[in-house]
Amino acid sequence: MAVLQPLRPTLYKGSFIHSVSLNELQVLENAIVGVDESGVIRFVERHVADGDVKDVVRGHGWEEWDVVSAGRGFWFPGFVDTHIHASQFPNSGIFGKSTLLDWLNKYTFPLEASLSSPVKATQVYTRCISATLAHGTTTAAYYATISVPSTNLLASLCLSRGQRAFIGRVCMDSSINPPYYTDASPETSLEATKATITHINTIDPNHTLLTPILTPRFAPSCTPTLLSSLGTLARTENLPIQTHIAENPPECALVKSLFPDSRSYTHLYDTHTLLTPRTVLAHAIHLSAEERALIRTRGAKISHCPVSNTSLSSGLCPVRALLNEGLDVGLGTDVSGGYSPSILVAAREASMVSRTLAAVSSATESENRDDALKLSVEECLFLATRGGARCLGLEGKVGGFEVGMEWDAQMVDLGSVGDGVEIGGGDGVEVGGGDGVEVGNVGVWEGQGWEERVAKWMFCGDDRNTRAVWVRGRLVHERLETV
Q1: Which of 22, 30, 32, 441 gets the highest tally of CB atoms within 10 A of its CB?
Q2: Exposed/middle/buried for 448, CB within 10 Å: 0-12, 13-18, 19+?
């Protein structure tokens, strides 16, 4: 593994935007943020004139520093993807007319099994990591495969690229799994999982970037013995857990048939001590009020995956109800059930799903209630950053621009529409010219302030607006200008 060059104290300049609460985005204009050699924010100063920068920085005891400016763009915290299957990346956008259970057998299991080939696994994981970084994801909770070498490879590649990652070897030993893709027994599954944990602890002993995460695929794919063994391991080693829950009705019915003695899907996990404050439950669409209350009591977290939920016709997750009931929620791309590796896409689709729920809510309900179901831009971007950080136990460490937090950030550049208008003969009207700058699909028009710009970025932006990305103070992605 290449030796990383030491960081230098760096001053980041420009406009900074981050969530300070679920409902509020704070804009810091003409600000400077000082990040030290360990990638930690040491000071934040607002409204600093160019002529005063040196004196202000020296007032914090710095004598030398590098400078990076956002220019006409702005700084935004790195996105946190709380649920993504790195092993499924080649299948992004492929789901046909299938729903969850047949999609797994037709598309997913064959692809994951093929990643036992180190050559193919390297290619898939490298492309997945590059894509997520390019879209501004600085932290990802990854599902790998059942293969130990394949899972270890994903961990090593994330570390070499500098992405913060939770790495999970998928555990699945049930007889309902395809015979070509299953763990031989609960014991072999547990030992294989321990092997991946040992690998991660060896290459990143302080968990600076990498954290092992226990990953029972979902209840139907695991025997009760395996579920209990993983619950015990999580408790004794204080490990996080990720799994799926209540994604679609046939899945819930399958759980009921396989575990008839369990009161519910949620109680099944709780019985095996898998419902903890460090548990991330993906989807959580079809939960009863009792199940949601149990999740809140245990402190478990929810990964909302709106793109996947819609793509596989799984359902519309009632995120407003989850938030109102005090549950912690983050966003997940759920590649490849989700067609995009972008959390920005997940944020906009979270808004669209909430609006759909408002549209189809009972006609007898009041208009105010319908509006209350809708997630605002501020709320969606909170889920994409601080919400996700809270789900993964990183609250106070990433997701914002505050002293003591690590510099996980993206530089966002939006286009501008110039004043020039040329009448082009038979070619129509050409708008732009002058000082107009095109950056992807987002064009900022005269008079549009920060509220409008951020909204346009969330609904119209893509990776072309992500000029550069840093994780823990280290540049991990930079968009090359094309001629």
Answers
A1: 32
A2: middle
